[in-house]
Design goal:
By secondary structure, the protein is mostly beta strands. Helices cover 4% and strands 45% of the residues. It has a five-stranded antiparallel beta sheet with strand order 1-2-3-4-20, with no helix packed on it.
Length: 437
Amino acid sequence: MKIKISFLILSLFISTVYISGAQNPIIQTKYTADPAPLVYKDTVFLYTSHDEDDAEGFKMYNWMLYTSTDMVNWTDHGAVASTKSFSWSPQNGAWAPQCIERNGKFYLYCPIHVKGIGVLVSDSPYGPFTDPLGKPLIKNSIEDIDPTVYIDDDGQAYLYWRNPNIYYVKLNKDMISYSGEIMKSPTKPDNYQEGPWFYKRNNKYYLAYASTCCPEGIGYAMSNNPTGPWNYTGTIMDRDPRSNGNHPGIIDYKGNSYVFGFNYAISKAKSAKHTERRSVCLAKLTYNSDGTIQKLPFWSEAGVDRLAVVNPYKRTEAETIAWSQGLKTSKGVNGMYVTDIDSGDYIKVKGVDFEKGAKEFMASVASTALTPVIELHLDSPTGTLLGSLKGKRTGGLENWVVQSCKVSKQGGVHDVYFVFKGTESNTFRFDWWQFNQ
């Protein structure tokens, strides 16, 4: 049975979250850090490192993937790679990654602490990823961490990395080898610490990074050339005692700019003791006309605005979540599902467009609980009740059965809360849901 977070401070934190509609941290079912967003076609693919639930220091075995098309609901795809993906890697040490697409293939650059930077390749952003080299791509020193990669307009790819210095190399077109020497940047900003994020926007090159530890903020430098010189430009986010570390990932998506990072809010709600159990956060970024970036406050609970609505009349994975309380996600032979559900736990899905209203709700579940119930509420965990799916035992937690219930007709766009009752620990699993008109 999982250890429930029962401290009063967590209860207050959760209450504040659903009353105010907060969205940060954006992942609550796992501890995540080192966000590396990739925009591919119409979707944001968010690769993260993963802190284990019992981590005191850095206990990191794998890399996770989450996707979104609205920036508020994130679908959990579980681990896409791990230290076991490399034959030369120890078990621990899966630090900050980044993924990039080139010519229909996806390259995931993965630092293994004290062993170097490896690269994994896949035909899909979802994986599976495999190691084409059987050895590190970069093995220069103990500082080989936090790789960031960008392909310039002329086709030349660059890999930056390192803590506390900044190194770079020109990658070949195959993206798994490089030409020339590893170069050390002579123009490192004074407050550079680690976690660089290298990109180009409107013909200006940017190097965002975690600034002087500890705590870390997010600083950035700009250049007219991909290899510098780097001119310290400003601070995206000041350092704050609420977060020991930070690590930027920056994208443009659907006409907006965003910066990802992390805080320790969920971990600190459980205990004041510092542990490396981090949680990815998200904020909207604003550029000035000269390309400089407007400073942000520390990660707000509010998060960002929704960019699209959810269609409830097609199958939606249960692990598509804007906010959740208590539960976890896991991966089985049929993919991801929601598990570890106790009575009172819930899932929030933001911006569901019922149009003129639904008549039926259906869900794929597996249950050993006697009387499991999924209550369907609008706009808060205690809001208007659409209906209650009174589940039945399915004969085991590997036996998935589609069960359904009638719902009252409610139109318009709402946040939907799936509130669980009559469940305890590992007696109920939730795979997908759909409303019918």
